[in-house]
Amino acid sequence: MKRFKLFDTKEDLIESLDENGRLIIKIGERKICLAQHQEQFYVFDHLCPHNKHSLFDGLINFLSEVVCPLHSYRFSLKDGVECEQRTAALKIHELRFEDPHVYLYLKD
Ligand code: FES
């Protein structure tokens, strides 16, 4: 797991989110979605494991699953598993607040 400092403070993170509480983070060639939902922050791969559609606009439901806008597959934001295991799991990364900075712990 690799560690990247994203923001100096949590306030900087919140100011960077769009009106839907979303942000794309670019790490080299890779894009990661950062999403705020009900006081929680989630970070996950930008592309759906099923057919590589962007998950940036995917809704997050009451079960804390992100729903792919293309075929509505639902991925747990805890472990990335699709709810009916119809495709590979989504990679879920970790956001950590290490006073006062904000770090991304990126899975390979
Ligand atoms: S591309 Fe995401 S569910 Fe098919």
Distance between the termini: 6 Å
Q: Uncertain spans, ≥5 residues at pLDDT below 50?
A: none
In the CATH hierarchy, what is the superfamily?
Rieske [2Fe-2S] iron-sulphur domain
Tell me about the biggest sheet? 6 strands, antiparallel
Explain what this protein looks like in three dimensions.
This protein has one domain (2-106): Rieske [2Fe-2S] iron-sulphur domain (Rieske Iron-sulfur Protein). 6% of the residues lie in helices and 44% in strands. It has one helix and nine strands; from the N terminus they run βαββββββββ. The strands form two sheets. It has a six-stranded antiparallel β-sheet. Strands 5-6-7 form a three-stranded antiparallel β-sheet, with no helix packed on it. The termini are close together.
Main features:
single chain, 108 residues, mainly beta, Rieske Iron-sulfur Protein, six-stranded antiparallel sheet, 9 strands, 6% helix, 44% strand, binds FE2/S2 (inorganic) cluster
Short overview:
By secondary structure, this protein is mainly beta.
Which SSEs are present, and which pair or pack?
Layout lengths: L1 E6 L2 H7 L5 E6 L2 E8 L2 E6 L13 E2 L4 E3 L6 E3 L15 E7 L2 E6 L2
Antiparallel strand pairs: 1-9, 2-3, 3-4, 4-8, 5-6, 6-7, 8-9
Bound molecules: FE2/S2 (inorganic) cluster.
